[in-house]
């Protein structure tokens, strides 16, 4: 029955979402095990899968280095910051990474599957669409989080 449900919901978006994606997201959100998670679309499986996770001690630079320069990805980044009141806070960003040099087919596939995948991740605070590293600078996250 689960397979039947999954394939029928795929009809509108084209891609399913591996259960593992939600589990890893919850580890980032609740247990703070990961600083970031990078997801990719596996065209053979026709679903979004986890490509890479970054440990809690990894930096924003580590995250940026992990994103491919010429291919699309979805990513979740757990951004820690201190408020003006000196409170430690954390905001979760959903990032749709679509470099301008990536294949047209990849851009289309990621664009048409984004909403369904994004809905699976309950608890994301902000969403960023980026086509090059300047649109995904740490200052962009800092400005959005405040």
UniProtKB/TrEMBL annotation:
The keyword Transferase does not apply. GO terms for biological process: actin filament depolymerization. InterPro entries: ADF-H (IPR002108), ADF-H/Gelsolin-like_dom_sf (IPR029006), ADF/Cofilin (IPR017904). One of its GO terms (molecular function) is actin binding. Belongs to the actin-binding proteins ADF family. This is ADF-H domain-containing protein. It comes from the Eukaryota. Actin-depolymerizing protein. Severs actin filaments (F-actin) and binds to actin monomers. One of its GO terms (cellular component) is actin cytoskeleton. Signal peptide: none annotated. It holds the Pfam family Cofilin_ADF. Keywords: Actin-binding. It comes from Asparagus officinalis. CDD domains: ADF_cofilin_like (cd11286). Residues 14-146 form the ADF-H domain. Coiled coil: none annotated.
